[in-house]
Predict the 3D structure of the following.
Amino acid sequence: MINKEEFRKKVILSAGQIFSHYGFKKTSMEEIAKALKMGKSSIYYYFESKEDIFEAVVLYEANILRNDLTTAIKSVESPIDKMKKYVFVRMKSFEKLSNYYNAIFDKNLDHFDFIETIREKYDREELAILRLIIYHGERKKVFNVVNSEYTAMAIQTTLKGLEVPLFWKKKEVNIENRLNAILDVLFYGIVKK
C-alpha cells in the first residue's frame, strides 16, 4: 500500500514530465491520470486542481535547484570557484527544471498568485546566495566590491539576461564557453590595467 506522501510525489513526478512536454495550458487532468494509470478522482483526493498540481511540481523543482546550488557551493572553497559553480549549476539546472523555469519566466502564468510568490522568493534567495559568495570573497580578499547588494543585483541581472539566448533559442549545445566568457568579464572586467 502506497502512503499519502509517496502518492503525492508520484503524481508530482509524473505531472512534471507532462507539464514539461506540453506546457501548463495544454496539459489536462485526464493526461495526468492516464499517465498514472488511475482515475481522476484518485488524484482529486490529493490535489484540488491542475493548478494545485502545477504549484506542487514547481515547488518540488525549486527544492531540487536549491539543493543542487547549495551542494555545488559547499563543494569548493575558493570564492571564485563558488561563483563559477553557482553560475554553471544554476544555468544547467534551468535546462532540466523546465516547469520551475516556466513558472519564473512565462508571463502567460502571471494570473496565478502562487507564481508571483515563487518568483519573489526565488529572487530573494538568489540575491542572498550571491551576497554570501561576494561576502566570502571580500573576507578572503579575493573580491574588491564597493557595494555587495548592487554587485549581487548586477550578477543576477546578467544571469537573467543570459537565460533567453541560452534556453529559448537552443542553438548552442555547449553553453560553457559563453558562461566562461561572462565569468571572465565578471572577475577581470574589460578595462586594461
Q: What stands out?
A: Residues 49-188 form a domain with the Tetracycline Repressor; domain 2 fold (CATH 1.10.357.10). The radius of gyration is 19 Å. The CA atoms of residues 171 and 181 lie 17 Å apart.
